[in-house]
């Protein structure tokens, strides 16, 4: 299939099932080498430091609002930071605190 572009250059459109007729010209290959086409591996991404207490409490609150389950680290954090647990309880809707208590109790009493 051939189409004329506004600049009067002929462009060949290749169907997905067809093979590409030729490799790219060397000058284009050279230019493309400057662009990374793969994502960096996880080991190359810098690790974030631990979250401060306020940010961690807000994160737990957001997870409860989003009906997401809490991870072990969240429970450990509230267990170690009782003041943050009290603040969470005082500033969250009752239904979400009841959900948190149910999750915490289910972790304590595995059947």
Topology, pairings included?
Layout: E1 2-4, E2 10-12, H1 26-32, H2 53-65, H3 72-80, H4 82-90, H5 94-108
Antiparallel strand pairs: 1-2
Helix pairs in contact: 2-4
Record keyword descriptors for this entry.
111 residues; mainly alpha; 5 helices; 2 strands; 5% strand; elongated
Q: Determine the structural class based on helices, strands and strand pairing.
A: mainly alpha
Radius of gyration: 28 Å
Q: How do the strands of the widest beta sheet line up side by side? A: 1-2
Helix content: 40-55%
Number of separate strands: 2
The general outline is elongated
Roughly what fraction of the amino acids lie in strands?
5-15%
Sketch the topology as an H/E string, one letter per element: EEHHHHH
- Which consecutive residue ranges, at least 5 long each, have pLDDT under 50? 1-5, 7-21
Major sheet characteristics: 2 strands, antiparallel
- Round the mean pLDDT to the nearest integer and report it: 77
User: What's the total helix number?
Assistant: 5
Span from first to last CA? Answer: 67 Å
Structure description:
It is a single chain. This protein has a domain at 53-108. Strands 1-2 form a two-stranded antiparallel ribbon. It is elongated and about 65 Å long. A hairpin with a 5-residue loop joins strand 1 and strand 2 (10-12). 7% of the residues are buried. Mean pLDDT is 77; it is low at 1-5 and 7-21. With 111 residues, the protein is mainly α. The chain has helices at 26-32, 53-65, 72-80, 82-90, 94-108; strands spanning 2-4, 10-12. The protein is built from 5 helices and 2 strands. It is 48% helix and 5% strand.
